[in-house]
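The following record pairs a protein chain with its ligand, inosinic acid.
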Amino acid sequence: MDIIVATRNEGKLREIRKGLKGLRIRLKGLNHFHNIPKIEEDGTSFLENALKKARFYSKYLSQPVLADDSGLEVDALKGAPGIFSARYGGAGTSDKKNREKLLKVMEGVPTPRRGASFKCVLAMVFPDGREIVVEGSCRGRIGFKEVGRGGFGYDPIFFLPRYGKTMAELSLQEKNRVSHRGKALRKLKKSLERFLKEIE
Ligand code: IMP
């Protein structure tokens, strides 16, 4: 079965491929298609945005679609940037600019108040209307500078005290073992295994 992953983020796609390895499915990202419309992520939660993307592209392509909506919630910022994580640095932003802005905003905040969570919602929508929704989260804290070159987004400034490393210092396999997305993917894999058995 082909499943379209409603993302242009190759980092997310790599993690999703790794997390769902072993299932009899083929995953394709939106970069695989030409002239596919963009939709506005104007929901008020990760769940709303993930479902909106999955429902829209499943209808548009008449194929099963998996969408990830995720982001970083910082305790000292009352959960910001949250659903605005991708746009935190303003117009024309980049992962690097988002990280720089967050480090600046967190200047002077002491270690005990630098707690944060990554959150991920995965929504899978089939053309017949069936839906699967799962979520995962991961606790850590905001570092004081960028460390590591792996992962994507905020990984180089997301410090995991249990490992004494940032998320960007972990291999893909290690990241999936502990991350918000890895946890959600293990739940999705179980549901998909059952679903694939039913339709075989
Ligand atoms: P989305 O693609 O609209 O869901 O935006 C996700 C935002 O959260 C982007 O800014 C990502 O960089 C950030 N984000 C989500 N998951 C991760 C992760 O696993 N590591 C680092 N940043 C992440």
